[in-house]
Amino acid sequence: MTPVLTRTWDEPESWTLETYRRHDGYRALATALAMPPDDVIAAVKAAGLRGRGGAGFPTGVKWGYIPQGDGKPHYLVVNADESEPGTCKDVPLMMACPHELIEGVVIAAYAIRARQAFIYVRGEVAPVLRRLHAAVAEAAAAGYLGEDILGSGFSLDVVVHAGAGAYICGEETALLDSLEGRRGQPRLRPPFPATAGLYACPTVVNNVETIASVPAILREGAAWFRSMGTEKSPGFTLYSLSGHVARPGQYEAPLGTTLRDLLTRAGGVRDGHRLKFWTPGGSSTPILTAEHLDIPLDYEGVAAAGSMLGTKALQIFDETTCVVRAVLRWSEFYAHESCGKCTPCREGTFWLTRILEELERGTAGVDDLDKLLDVCDSVAGRSFCALGDAATSPIVSSVAHFRDEYLAHLRLGACPFPPERSALFA
Ligand code: L3W
Ligand code: SF4
Is the bond into 36 cis (omega within 30 degrees of 0)? Predict the structure, then answer.
């Protein structure tokens, strides 16, 4: 039961091999290497682990798409390019316990018959790069990486790669282009990476938390994993709480936990303030309100409430926050990070930001709220990758929940929330 991923985090020097070994570290690797690779895939399928990077795709199913006997090299790529606004789970995980990830990498690579793995990390997070480099060297020296791992005959090389810091490189195909040395821009899918990924070879791309969840499944079994969470969203996960919350941070819990429970653990909304709105999975997921405090935070529960679980990045905003200002900040982010490949997103995110600026200042015209939604219609579902949809999610959902607040800006000719009252955005 939980804590699993965070079980070593409070130990002094939690990142060392010695600490990890004291907490069952690399026991799952020995178990996995004694099994045929297909049985490892079957175990992950049976556990029902779903991708923790945002989409929730079943991990074992994805591994099962890798063709066998095709004569091509296979690659495992870990997406450690965490940059979704509000998402702050993979960096702490890699800092606190890099060996959990590395053990998962070796098991996953063995299962898909890859001899080369990459961990693609945001270049700006130099401490993570240093920690991963040190942990990879430590694991190799102990015989967990390199040639003939634990005498199994299986060999694996792991490269820690520093990206250049573009949000779009978290999109799996843009990440692969970047890894190949090109400008990171999304590729057309299909073919999916499982068929033609890195250097046009079969490739599994998985998020850090997904891979770090694998050793526990091999150690404790699929039934144990399924004893947590819900039938369709089994297991444990990391929820990140940020914003107007007394004790922000990472909270590990079974999937299906409610925001009310997590807020209780996190000391509640700051200074006795009231919850106004929140994101379930970063700014790419439609915002929710205080009405949704008791929805189960699993893939199905959040979808039923009209949003997405995404990366489980719960950004909390209290009643002092201007929702238009918050949405404008996110819109600026998407306009800046749009890679420019397709017209609806490249032009649309620019115009959405311009209109939101006018709305927030109270200088917009009466038609501008409709114009804002019209531009959203031209971007969502018409862009080349998910960034276009993501850019419109907070806008459309905020108008649905807080239309009166948008109209109040127009009536007043100014923002009703003085900047000094909105601590996050002052
Ligand atoms: C083979 C098929 N593979 C799907 C694979 C696909 C991918 C995975 C999920 O976006 C979401 C996005 C963001 N054969 C396959 C197949 N696959 N069908 O399954 O694919 P997909 O298209 O459902 O999603 P995605 O493109 O991976 C991810 C949302 O996450 N998000 C963003 C998070 C940002 C970060 C970050 O900061 N780095 O994680 C937050 O909610 O909007 O909807 O592997 O290849 N037939
Ligand atoms: Fe690039 Fe945006 Fe088009 Fe995605 S939707 S390809 S980020 S311009």
Answer: no
In this predicted structure, the answer to whether residue 423 has a pLDDT above a threshold of 50 is no
Strand order in the sheet with 313-318: 249-254, 236-243, 313-318, 275-279, 288-289
What pLDDT shows up at residue 161? 98
Q: Which atom of ligand 2 is nearest to the CA of 337?
A: 7
Q: Please provide residue 160's backbone torsions phi and psi, each rounded to the nearest 5 degrees.
A: -95, 115
Rounded-to-integer distance, Cα 381 and Cα 389, Å: 6
Check: pTM over 0.90? Answer yes or no: yes
pLDDT tens column, 327-377:
999 999 999 999 999 999 999 999 999 999 999 999 999 899 999 999 999
d(CA 329, CA 394): 11
Residue 426: the pLDDT is 43
**Does ligand 1 come within 6 angstroms of the Cβ of 193?**
yes
* Ligand sitting nearest the alpha carbon of 83: 1
Residue whose C-alpha is closest to residue 317's, from 278, 364, 372: 278
For this complex, say whether ipTM is above 0.90: yes
- C-alpha 86 – ligand 2 centre gap (Å): 21
C-alpha 380/C-alpha 24 separation (Å) is 46
Q: How crowded is residue 332: how many other Cβ atoms within 10 Å of its Cβ?
A: 15
Residue that has been written with the tokens 């890099």 in this structure: 98
Beta bridge partners of 251: 239
As a whole number of angstroms, the distance between CA 2 and CA 110 comes to: 26
Helix, strand, coil: what percent of the chain each, to 5?
45, 15, 40
Place of tokens 């039923």: 304
Q: Which helix (H) or strand (E) holds 381?
A: none
- Cα angle at 296 between 290 and 300, to 5 degrees? 115
User: Cis before residue 190, ω within 30 degrees of 0?
Assistant: yes
Of 183, 191, 202, 166, whose CA–CA distance to 77 is shortest? 202
Looking only at the bridges linking them, the beta strands covering 249-254 and 157-162 are: unpaired
Cβ-based neighbours of 281, under 8 Å, separated by 6 or more: 54, 84, 87, 302, 307, 308, 309, 310, 311, 312, 313
Question: Ligand 2 centroid to 351 CA: how many Å?
Answer: 15
Residue 279: CB within 6 Å of ligand 1?
no
Token reading at 389:
């949809």
User: Which pLDDT value is given to residue 420?
Assistant: 59
